[in-house]
Amino acid sequence: MSDIEAIAPDMPSVTGVRHEYVDVPGLHMHVAHAGAGEPVIMLHGLPQHWWQWRAIATALAGRYSLICPDARGFGWSQAESPRIDRYSMRDDVLALMDTLGLERARVVAHDMGALVATQLAYTHPERVHALVVLSVPPPFMRMGPGMLPAMRHVPKLRFRKPGQSLEWVFRPPYVAGAMTDETRGVYLAPLRDPAKDAAISEVYRGLLIGGEMPALVTGAYRRRRLRAPTLYAFGAKDVPLTEAYVRAHVGDVKRFADDVEFASIPDAAHFATDDNPRAVQELILRFFARTG
Questions:
Q1: Residue 151: which of 120, 111, 178 has the closest Cα?
Q2: What are the backbone angles phi and psi of residue 163, rounded to the nearest 5°?
């Protein structure tokens, strides 16, 4: 039995994807790889793992080397401590890049991963060639009452009881269509481990509510500048966080960023990589082509 089979008997199989474990401080990190070429780091959302990128990564693999880590507390990564602080996941990504010998990479990120990618782009701009953010608005957008419906899930996830089902996350309005029971099962399987289950509330305690949320509310990012070329893309059915809403509330982008674009993903809600993976991969490919 291989190391992966011993640690993660439920690892899903995807053609063309290979797996390894990389040791970074405090974390035995599982990383899925596909393709060859210029490196692209893909940071999954919550409560997902590397498998979120199965369709996107295999489509991009002809041009890029896709690196899809399982975040601390998620998927098949094993952390020494259950605690997740504001910069824990960012530091894990930096350590992974150092271990793999990557001075710079493109980054694609969704949901929770988008918060981590944003931290990386602002604090270490020299490490980020270009950035694609899915389903999360720019951090320099002012937070207003119209954003409240987009935060309706936060209390339920922050204060959920251990073992409480998360199937509702993968149902409308968070998805545009019907996600199969099999797909939900693959995403939720690692949460059978109590340590992984506890990571959900840890992310909301340390990364979001105790970390990024105060910075967003106080406008801290409006006093900084985003240097990496960045594409923000939103599901057309992810109300209120659509492209139109963000464009209307983001203000003068040139004040806060060097190069930002916005796009809409048709027939998609929050979990756009499952709703419409083809549209997502086409947006990524076109944006990467424009950023050289």
A1: 111
A2: 85, -5
Three-state SS for 53-99 is HHHHHHHHCCCEEEEEECCCCCCCCEECCCCCCCCHHHHHHHHHHHH
CATH code at position 122: 3.40.50.1820
CA distance linking residue 292 with residue 283, whole number of Å: 15
Q: Residue 151 belongs to what domain range? A: 3-290
Measure the CA–CA gap between 271 and 289, rounded to whole angstroms. Answer: 24
Q: Taking residues 111-125, what's their average pLDDT?
A: 98
Report whether 77 contacts 27 (CB < 8 A).
yes
- Check: CB of residue 160 under 8 Å from CB of residue 46: no
pLDDT in tens, 133-153: 999 999 999 988 888 888 899
Structure tokens at 75: 């998927």
Give how many domains the chain has, as a whole number: 1
pTM listed for this prediction: 0.95
Cis peptide bond N-terminal to 47, omega within 30:
yes
Q: For 198, phi and psi rounded to 5 degrees?
A: -70, -20
Q: Which residue matches tokens 């409240």?
A: 148
